[in-house]
Amino acid sequence: MLRLKGKKPERRCVGCWSRKDKGELVRLVASDDGGLVVDVEHKLEGRGMYLCPRRECMKKVVRKDRISKALRRRIEGVTPEALETLIYEAHKERFFSLLHFCRKVGCLITGREAVRKELKRGRVSLLILAKDLSDRSKRAFHCPMVPWVEVGRLKEYGEAFSTKPLGVLAVTEAGLARRLFFVAEKLRQIEEG
């Protein structure tokens, strides 16, 4: 298929029927056992459906049984709350999995002083701030040239890395930073409803 330069693939949300950039939507795939699997990276095989990460769309697809119709397979026992939890938890798991990978390959910087040092060097590709970090601390790390996300909690990052609560993290590798930003944006959209 020939694509025009700069044109991104679009898909239609099964909830509101609006056409959006594929990256803005959540992809769901039917599992072999009759359940749903969230395709966070949009790479799983099989028939899938796309959905806006908004509560309204989740309610609509469940109420009107659009999941079964879109997947051409009977999917039962799905509630809007269960669907939202499934989508949120899958994205959260992927986010922390990517963070652990960043740490393993040496491109994750944790702690205020270490992040501040890397920001001054200009090596930070993504700044990650905990949502419950104080506004004063958030302002202190704001850098207009560096993309940033506000996701997760101090305690979550501390538990994930077996340390004291962490509120400031940075990723120095651009490719991983883009993937983390993509997943973090979905988490933010789901939280906002």
Q: What is the CATH T-level topology of the largest domain?
A: 60s Ribosomal Protein L30, Chain: A
The whole-number mean of residue pLDDT values reads 91
Largest sheet: 4 strands, mixed
Q: What portion of residues is helical?
A: 40-55%
Give the tally of structural domains: 2
Q: State the end-to-end CA separation.
A: 35 Å
Number of helices: 7
Structural class estimated from helices and strands? alpha+beta
Total count of strands: 9
CATH class of the largest domain: Alpha Beta
Question: Into which percentage range does the β-strand content fall?
Answer: 15-25%
- The oligomeric status of these chains comes to single chain
CATH architecture of the largest domain: 2-Layer Sandwich
CATH superfamily of the largest domain: Ribosomal protein L30/S12
Rg calc: 18 Å
Give the H and E element order: EEEEEHHHEHEHEHEH
Question: Can you walk me through this structure?
Answer:
With 193 residues, the chain is an alpha+beta fold. The protein has 2 domains: 69 residues, YlxR-like (Hypothetical Cytosolic Protein, Chain: A); 102 residues, Ribosomal protein L30/S12 (60s Ribosomal Protein L30, Chain: A, 2-Layer Sandwich), CATH 3.30.1330. Helix content is 44%, strand content 17%. The strands form 3 sheets. It has a 4-stranded mixed sheet with strand order 6-9-7-8, with helices on both faces. The protein has a 3-stranded antiparallel sheet with strand order 4-3-5. Strand 1 and strand 2 form a beta hairpin. Helix 1 packs across helix 3 and helix 3 runs antiparallel to helix 7. It is elongated, with a radius of gyration of 18 Å.
